[in-house]
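Class, carefully examine what follows:
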Amino acid sequence: MPEITINLAEGRTEAQKTAIMRDISASLVKHLGVDPEAVVIQINEAPPPNKMKGGMTFVERKAAGK
């Protein structure tokens, strides 16, 4: 059973998250030949102050235009 975990900063809409999970699921079905019922996808979201890239929190990056 393929299981995919996606880590994101909070801020995406439910529609965006559902769409990406559907696309990933369809890709696994197409390329691995697995049954859709076997695919598990989970999104973990972190508040932007709790996520960092390049030494800056996501809040700081947004303020800096990155």
User: Anything to note?
Assistant: The longest strand covers residues 3-9. The domain at 3-63 is CATH 3.30.429.10 (Macrophage Migration Inhibitory Factor).
